[in-house]
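Weekly modeling sync, notes
Attendees: S.R. (lead), two postdocs, one rotation student

Agenda item 3: backlog of single-chain predictions. S.R. asked that every request posted to the team notebook include the full sequence so nobody has to chase files. The rotation student volunteered to paste the first one in as an example of the format we agreed on. Action items at the bottom.

Example entry:
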Amino acid sequence: QVRLVESGGGLVQAGGSLRLSCAAFKTLFSINVMGWYRQAPGKQRELVATITYGGTTNYADSVKGRFTISRDNAEDTIYLQMNSLKPEDTAVYFCNVWLGDRGDLDRPSTYWGQGTPVTVSS
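Predicted structure, as returned to the notebook:
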């Protein structure tokens, strides 16, 4: 029903920046809420930032003021601008999308990308 293509992960020093992208390709349903989640080694997957079709956003407290999520509805693409990166931001970052008339800013759907790793060195 949907394919998510992520890019932008990599290695960066503490204090640096990265920009992640996720493009959604669908065959039938419209794209609703999209977002980023991350999972560090030995930890549960956690919400980073989510955004509605209209631009309403939700951020984890740990990234507020440093990360910015945005979307391009014409391209069904979201971005995550990550500034002032910290070693604790190191994780695999996963794109997530809600389809059709369902969407939730606080929890993920079952549609995931494969993830892009982000490593922040101290």
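Discussion: group reviewed the output briefly. The chain has a mean pLDDT of 96.
Action items: rotation student to repeat for the remaining queue; S.R. to check formatting next week.
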